[in-house]
Please model this.
Amino acid sequence: MKALYPGSFDPLTLGHLDLIKRGCSLFGEVVIAVLENPTKSPTFSLESRIAQIKDATKEIRGVEVCSFKGLTVEFAKRKNADLILRGLRAMSDFEYELQIAHTNRTLNQNYETVFLATEAHFSFLSSSVVKEVAAFGGEINHMVPERVATELQQKFK
Amino acid sequence: MKALYPGSFDPLTLGHLDLIKRGCSLFGEVVIAVLENPTKSPTFSLESRIAQIKDATKEIRGVEVCSFKGLTVEFAKRKNADLILRGLRAMSDFEYELQIAHTNRTLNQNYETVFLATEAHFSFLSSSVVKEVAAFGGEINHMVPERVATELQQKFK
Amino acid sequence: MKALYPGSFDPLTLGHLDLIKRGCSLFGEVVIAVLENPTKSPTFSLESRIAQIKDATKEIRGVEVCSFKGLTVEFAKRKNADLILRGLRAMSDFEYELQIAHTNRTLNQNYETVFLATEAHFSFLSSSVVKEVAAFGGEINHMVPERVATELQQKFK
Amino acid sequence: MKALYPGSFDPLTLGHLDLIKRGCSLFGEVVIAVLENPTKSPTFSLESRIAQIKDATKEIRGVEVCSFKGLTVEFAKRKNADLILRGLRAMSDFEYELQIAHTNRTLNQNYETVFLATEAHFSFLSSSVVKEVAAFGGEINHMVPERVATELQQKFK
Amino acid sequence: MKALYPGSFDPLTLGHLDLIKRGCSLFGEVVIAVLENPTKSPTFSLESRIAQIKDATKEIRGVEVCSFKGLTVEFAKRKNADLILRGLRAMSDFEYELQIAHTNRTLNQNYETVFLATEAHFSFLSSSVVKEVAAFGGEINHMVPERVATELQQKFK
Amino acid sequence: MKALYPGSFDPLTLGHLDLIKRGCSLFGEVVIAVLENPTKSPTFSLESRIAQIKDATKEIRGVEVCSFKGLTVEFAKRKNADLILRGLRAMSDFEYELQIAHTNRTLNQNYETVFLATEAHFSFLSSSVVKEVAAFGGEINHMVPERVATELQQKFK
Model:
């Protein structure tokens, strides 16, 4: 099966990476879809984020990396995905995730959002926490892939 | 009884409309008070929002539509309302709603905030979700009244 | 308006009493409906609970105290109530309350459950906490009306 | 793919049934595994529950109904399932579900628990709510399949 | 400082043990107070639980193990403790913990309940989950100290 | 013991002040560390906030007031603090607080974040609620120390 894993990945964390690995081993194929949102000003450009994800996933079979604009359900259809994959952290905005899953189902009944529980020791991790720690010069190697750590530290030097 | 239903209604959703109908049949009168908040830049002007609400509620007996600035409890007093009405969605910011209700009671003991549970199938709906879907060209007729859908689609064309 | 306030009140707490007073001043009449639930073995008999509530509310205009078996919405109809009243504590089982409110609306569209936020300093209070403290000989006068405190202390002597 | 959908189903609700249909169309095969839990005294015997589920799912392709004792991950392995399927209601015990999903992963890394968001209008529904309403003679046809409604009403007559 | 760490510890988990170690290094002394609750029928007797805790903490400086009946705040006073220590798991009953902390403060203003966040990878762990897995013959060595694992497995053989 | 109490305190509320008093009586010393966050535009300048806090705490023994930039755990180390102190309101972002506590522990194992439950009647209070009420000319004397109330009212005149 082919799963679409949408997100801003600004930047990719080890929690995202864990979910990608588990998604690939469970469904076989995961399309990592980086959302290009004109209303937001991301820390990393779309190109950098795609390069970071490609670098971090180059050893994982069944991964495709791309970007998209517009509705997730429409992009899932264009990519012939079977489902939309999302992670649920104990400390995540559970209500927001259910709200988006319900909204997507009203837009296209065929697209289920499938949730996997994020690993317990990644449950405190989010891109915003990583950026806050990096901005203050803190250690982030246990939070993000190597290349992301290097590029973040350069950005906040 | 007269209920004051305050909010930004940017824009009005079918969830709001359902609550207005139920408020009117329960209490007899509902004053829909559109908050004019100088610190925010709404998607629709105050005039458009008032026109949208008037259009959507023209068949409902006991509805008044107006705008206000300043404290909700003070406006409730000016409008001779008996209570403040708010909706609670399973997927709403329950803690924020209770925080505002407590704050309002410390400002004026006479004004109770009365909560009604939003209909289950509207529990995923919020103005921000509607705008996000509309911005990406998604179908919103099942989320907002007709006039709001048309005006939103024009805005994001 | 007439509100039906259903519960087991095993025993009545100062949080319940606060809600009864606010319900009466807001709606005019509150029917306190003590649920007789054959599947549960309450600490106080139905008669004791009704006597405790009558004693605690004797100074409050617009209060009626009675018991009922079966569905809340059906009893509300029999008592000609206009709505069902429930309290929401920050530390209450919000999801359970919404679940019951939705269930009741599917059983009888005419019966809305109206929630009031429990006073902040009562938000930690529940009948089970009161009984736990009383069982261990703790001070409970700041949690329950006087008669309830006396009868609880006798029970756990 | 083959999903294992474990639960007590005491009794099966329309929320469960909706999840079974969506699981089958998404994964192709769903094994409905009724947990036989010696420490609990269910309302319906294991046989009745299995018969009810078989009756309600007879038109759905890819469904298998059976019972099991012991650990879910071990039974999933015995049935050659690819994953464990669970529903997440906005008003469900999200934290308990994540707790069980994490526990199962520590017991067998190969078994992911995949969550689907329960349909919004079923989000208030649970077996315990159904039994409570039925016990008080309330209408339950909008909550459970026909056969379950009939057998529940006979039980509580 | 001396912290009182009350609980039923039925049985002690690695999450409890982690909190005990962190409490000792932070405050110097931790009194592990096993609650003897006549209204409950524990899996392990009071003596077994005390023996298990003593065995698991024998290498930790500053630990005392005892049992108590009645109010936590009163026992804290009898033991000359400075504060009450509790763990908060992301997946714990946060509202129940706050409810008990508030209740204890109304009973004795001098006793603060101090919370530490349970380690992320223990956040799914609780005594009831451990017993459920053990009852079904599952692996529990990653959840409880060795002696507890052995005694649990004997109990459920 | 010395506790570091970090925050933006923009402005100090009576809820903060209550926690400072309780922290001092529990640990002996509390360093109130006002975070200087270049990415945010606070309502009050750093100097005004420090002056407000010094004024409000001048009668409390064991208080030190200062500001810091960068990582909380690093500043805690520089100030020789023994722990980080935070308040938990029933209506606070519990998940965000746990996320920060876990993050800080991964950055420096030696720094525990210790939580105290905010007093029940302050549980609805936050700096943002205070500013919203003050902006609309509402009464705030029951929410903030006197000097803060005066300065806020001047700011929003």
